[in-house]
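TL;DR need structure tokens for one chain.
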Amino acid sequence: MNLSDTVPDAVLWDMDGTLADTEPYWIAAEYDLAAAHGGHWSDEHAEALVGNDLVTSARYIRRHAGIDLTPAQIIDALLDGVVTRVRQHIPWRPGARDLLAALAEAHVPCALVTMSYHRFADAVVAALPEGSFATVVAGDDVRHGKPHPEPYLTAAARLHVDPSRCLAVEDSPTGLASAVAAGVPALGVENVVPLVAAPDRHLVSTLKGLTPADLGLIASTLRAVG
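>> reply
TL;DR here they are.
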């Protein structure tokens, strides 16, 4: 059996909460923003934003935090907060870097598919070995963010691969919905928000110990179910 028969053609990674445990950075930035402008915030509101594109999140914050800023101003302030934090320390998710390295050794191309903007995503990618990701699809690259399929379809097109032959790695219902809508088999890694089991995704509690062959088996099983 060829290696190409046992691994995905490509692995398409979400970033926040999947590759790096940066969701707490976003939540802290949201609280800071609300406090700085006389607004109010809650963990429930923060969890509602996990996996959303930044424009949708900014509109939600403006409405629910009660602050008089434009969505663009809110996005800039949030990015300032998370970029500052990630430059000090990147809290990698368990097993993520080891799996990335194993995929590189197996010559499986990877794409980062995130609704964060490039100035944040690029800071995270820069902390990884060169070539870890063949391409980065960020929120400022697409017209429609997750849960729309455009982000994952864009990543697959850039890598010149069939979406159904890939595997998406996600941590949010929004991200899983985006991958499934794009026809990409989806692996959900539970983190900040609970994930609901369904025939169109495979759920795990951690990436630790997973191999490229494991990802290939997950992807092929999901394709068979689909």
